[in-house]
Amino acid sequence: MSAAGTDAGPSRWRAGLGRLAAGAALLAAVAMLPWLSGNDPALTVLRARSADQDPTPEQLAAVREQVGLDEGPFAHLAHWLGGLPRGDVGTSWVSGEAVLPQVTNAFAVSVTLMLGALAVTIVVAALVSARTLYLGSRRLHRGTGAIGVAVLAALPKFLLASLLATVCGVWLGWFPSSGWEGPASMVLPSLALGVPSGAMIGGLLDQSLPAAFNEPWARTWYAYGFAPGRVARHALRRALAGVLPQLLPTVVGLVGGAVAVEKIFNIPGLGRLALDAAIAQDLPPLQTATLTLILLGVVAGLLIQALRRALLGPALRDGALPALHTPAASQGRFTRWAAMACALALLALVTAGLLRDPLHVDTAARLLPPSATNPLGTDALGRDLLARLGHGALRTVGVALVVTAVCTLIGLVVGMTAQVGAGLTEVVSTMPAVLAGLLTTAVTGPSASGAALAVCLVGWTPYAAQAAALLEQERASGHMLASLSFGAGPGYLLRYHLLPAVLPPVLRNALLRLPTTVLVLASLGFLGLGEQPPTAEWGRLLSENQPYVELAPWTVLGPACALVLLSVLALNGTDAVTARGPASVRRR
């Protein structure tokens, strides 16, 4: 029996303990939200009930006694946990209704929407990687559609949702633009959620396929004349094993993190229920929704892990996996020119904007279209959009880079802790960034640093899942076992085997997700949890101008194009990372 097999039992126990500890910590943090905020929980609950802005002390005392606020957070949590075996999760502090039917209905809606969005994600990912799969199976040049991936991956989901609701729902009348009444109601929100997610997953798969086609078995099959379709199927199976862990945060995000899309389409989903409960500090539905998301994340994580191991087969258990070496590919002339054009265009926009005043308000010039005076038009307050775009560039890109770097580092560290880290990753990936923002804001107050901290608390999970999967595959490779047999120590293995196998794919993933980080920070600012007005920040420009998409689409065109340009440049940087892959390190 292999070492992997003998260690399977303790690893499962460690993973289970990790999930239990992380779930308990998350539920405890949620339970403390009303007491962490610094505001009187009774006042927040009473205002959510009746919008009474000046309640009497007697009214507040009655609310405290009714919901048991004087007992403290942990007594309330213990009481709530005690009711779980009986199927009693309490009643809403705001509405007084039973929580379980609310959460059950919202979960059913969110799961249905998730399945539709997941189908769109798979289709888009297949389209993105189809060219590389076709050319690689025929030993032809394996280029990537980097520009198309960048455009789709940088699309803000809330902006895409607004456009789809306006064009396909209101103007053309093809599908319902609001509500949840039947299968037709899930088409537009599924597209809004699935297209950017599919571009992300497809981009990662597209970057992994050349390494699979470069493996020894593939070269042997080419030499013996195997059918291209057969080679393509096995290469896809090999590459999917490294990309599948990225589905965990994607799947859970489609359920709990689709708050903006659910609000735009007026969908009564679980993410919207959790956000409304968190804002009203209505603990019973918030705790129940959090527990539901945790269980969903654990189940999804176990299913994805089982599927990944089935794809890799006995080679993972027996330590016979070949190492994936991504061949260094030179950039095509079109890609180089496109990247250079994007860099020049972005530089021109930022430079021109820096020469203008981003805070000047002219109410007589509200929502003006682009002109010689205002090349990108004006916003709802009459401010020059080009000026705001230029002045927000450094803050936007700088904060996003710092947050991405911190998340990547945390993900690498957690990913190297094997099974304990896997349980922690599954649980934390269920936590929407908005809920993390509410928890951090309760401690730090609304600020850019608080929003960045919130994203760092949950944004590391995709990198941890990817790093853990790649490390497991690398430890099962033949050259790793050979190095161990020759007496290689942990430091040597980490430097010459583990890190070179993990760093390039994780860095490519981080660069691909850079525009997404900008948008997550923007969503927190839009909800009053992050960057505050009148700060010029790209994501906030999109968020605050989103209500005017139908009336003045140019208000979101500038920041959206800037994000696309940034995404193209980030993807262009992934080619440089690919050229310095693990093979170059091992050759030394």
Would you give an account of this structure?
72% of the residues lie in helices and 0% in strands. The protein has 30 helices and no strands. Residues 1-6 and 581-588 have low confidence and may be disordered. It has 588 residues and is mainly alpha-helical.
Largest sheet: none
Shape: globular
Total DSSP helices = 30
Q: Classify the helix fraction into a percent range.
A: over 70%
Strand content: under 5%
Mean pLDDT: 80
What labels describe this entry?
588 residues, 72% helix, globular
Set down the secondary structure blueprint.
Elements: H1 3-6, H2 8-31, H3 33-36, H4 41-50, H5 57-67, H6 73-83, H7 99-136, H8 146-153, H9 157-171, H10 187-213, H11 216-223, H12 228-243, H13 247-256, H14 259-264, H15 270-279, H16 283-312, H17 314-318, H18 333-354, H19 385-391, H20 393-415, H21 418-428, H22 433-444, H23 448-458, H24 461-475, H25 478-485, H26 490-512, H27 514-526, H28 538-545, H29 554-579, H30 582-587
Helix pairs in contact: 2-16, 2-21, 4-5, 7-10, 7-13, 7-16, 8-10, 8-29, 9-10, 10-12, 10-26, 12-16, 13-16, 15-16, 16-21, 18-19, 18-29, 20-23, 20-24, 20-26, 20-27, 21-24, 22-23, 23-27, 24-26, 26-29, 27-28, 28-29
